[in-house]
């Protein structure tokens, strides 16, 4: 266990040094969240009304969740890059734990997710977003978001190990993130949708996470997508879904990495 912690710490330090040397990598977790908050808040806010809530407050949980989903692509690209440029071969020659490579990668990407959350929270606050349920509930909301981000990082690691090329990774990440984000309650209330489409959006796991964050932040609305079980009990449903997905993808990713390193 001590060796694993030591290996992970060293590899996390490696990833952080890359950020210092190539600060352009921070653009995706700073400028992109700002653009999402400003563009969606201004454009959609002028066209969409939400019962019982200001649209910009309603929007923030959706944008937070969307940014956590992008961890899929970020981690997958990083892992695929390590496979293609020979870094994995160098790691294989060292006396280190195989799982430490993926743990360090996902923790490093979780650090980027923290930066994204802080950036979006500041911009959202300047645009009028507020938390109404107290510090502890707000902390729980951000904790749930980071749990989702960490889960998506492990899913991305698995995709990167299986796809093994940047082109395939980008395609898979896009096909995964876009439908999950826009077929949900992230950006629009669900009451006006046709029955079958509303049912699909309510049972989308992303809708549960977004609803949970709105509940914890105190940005809830009246009569928006409250029919299905996941959005009636969003916090426990979100925790269970993230836990189950982590339990499935972590061993699968570690196994895929060991096979890739053995080639």
Helix count from the secondary structure assignment: 12
Number of strands: 0
Q: What class, by secondary structure content?
A: mainly alpha
Q: Roughly how many Å apart are the termini?
A: 26 Å
The coarse silhouette is globular
Using only C-alpha atoms, the radius of gyration works out to 19 Å
Secondary-structure element order, N to C:
HHHHHHHHHHHH
| Major β-sheet annotation | none
Helix proportion range: over 70%
Low-pLDDT windows of residues: none
Binned strand content: under 5%
Organism: Streptomyces scopuliridis
Protein name: ABC transporter permease
Account of the protein in words:
The structure is a single chain. It contains twelve helices and no strands. With 263 residues, the protein is mainly α. The two termini are 26 Å apart.
Short characterization:
The protein is built from 12 helices and no strands. It has helices at 2-21, 27-44, 55-69, 71-84, 87-92, 98-126, 135-163, 166-182, 195-202, 205-217, 229-232, 234-261. It comes from Streptomyces scopuliridis.
Helix-strand blueprint:
Elements: H1 2-21, H2 27-44, H3 55-69, H4 71-84, H5 87-92, H6 98-126, H7 135-163, H8 166-182, H9 195-202, H10 205-217, H11 229-232, H12 234-261
What keyword list fits this structure?
263 residues; 0% strand
